[in-house]
Amino acid sequence: MKLQVQPKLIIHGGAGSSLHGKGGVEAVRRALYAIVEEVYSLLLAGATASEAVVRGCQLLEDEPRFNAGTGSVLQSDGQIRMSASLMDGTLGRFSGVINVSRVKNPIELALFLQSSPDRVLSDYGSAELARELQVPSYNALTELRLQEWIQERQDNFKSTMAGVVAEPELVETSNAGRGTIGVVALDTYGNLASGTSTGGKGFERIGRVSDSAMPAGNYATQYAAVSCTGIGEDIIDECLAPKIVVRVTDGMSLKEAMQRSFAEAHKNERDLGAIALDASGNIAWGKTSEVILAAYHNGEYMGDTLELPTDTEVGCISIG
Ligand code: ASP
């Protein structure tokens, strides 16, 4: 197939404080690279940005290490409620589900809602939709997340968030960060799309709404696309994804838009991260937290952000 535009891809598995054992880093890297490889080959074969984003989100949701789909963290009442959204930059269309339970891949519901007149559904409506679509009932609970919750209950829920990735050693030392997932793609036709999926912050109050199914945490136009992770309240207060996208849409370079937006977030003492692409194929990531677990394919090679100095705030892989 003749490529019109060189596809680009960046994915994330959350942001937070540094990964514990080296084993953790290598395992996370392997998991992220396997998904980047599979999704990038779809883009090379002509998949649209939205198709690639949905596939990437499904694969990340299915990886129990990350806090989305299987392996989602538990809320304060011990239940899993997941949120996911998809934004097609070319159509300028956002869709999502908020606090859905007992489905394997929340991003699939977000995909279905792309062509529905009602595009964002909350808990009850999402459950009705899943039933209508005959999505099989699925228990996303993993043993590690259950142990993490039991530990937290013993500690009276003093952690602000659950662990960045589900690792046995993290169960003893929880509050290591988060593990929401996100995918941003530029396809060979020049379209951008972004998707984000989460089990939430972990241990939160029932009914709390995550940024992941709001434009604040997931936004795309034909000029730029962004997926965020970190403390949802901080992402909402910064209105992070649209802020970066609008800056690029208004003519700022992606690198500068990221630098400005993260300098503001830093000043406001936010705890968050984001991955981004622009229509020219520039790839970027940013964080105020210690780490962001991101990996990308720029058409020539794969790279990641797992072992950067913790004070590096923004990175941009520019096209030549
Ligand atoms: N942003 C997500 C939330 O607050 C959590 C995360 O990114 O890990 O629900």
Which terms would index this structure?
single chain, 320 residues, alpha+beta, Glutamine Phosphoribosylpyrophosphate, subunit 1, domain 1, binds aspartic acid
Describe this structure in words.
With 320 residues, the chain is an alpha+beta fold. The protein has one domain: (Glycosyl)asparaginase (Glutamine Phosphoribosylpyrophosphate, subunit 1, domain 1, 4-Layer Sandwich). The strands form two sheets. Strands 4-3-2-6-5-1-11-12 form an eight-stranded mixed sheet. It has a five-stranded antiparallel sheet with strand order 7-8-9-10-13. The longest helix is centred in the N-terminal third of the chain and has 23 residues. About 3% of the residues have low confidence. Aspartic acid (ASP) binds next to strand 8 and helix 7.
Structural category is: alpha+beta
Strand order of the largest sheet: 4-3-2-6-5-1-11-12
Q: At the first level of CATH, what is the class?
A: Alpha Beta
How many DSSP-defined strands?
Answer: 13
SSE pattern, N- to C-terminal: EHHEEHEHHHEEEEHHHEEEEE
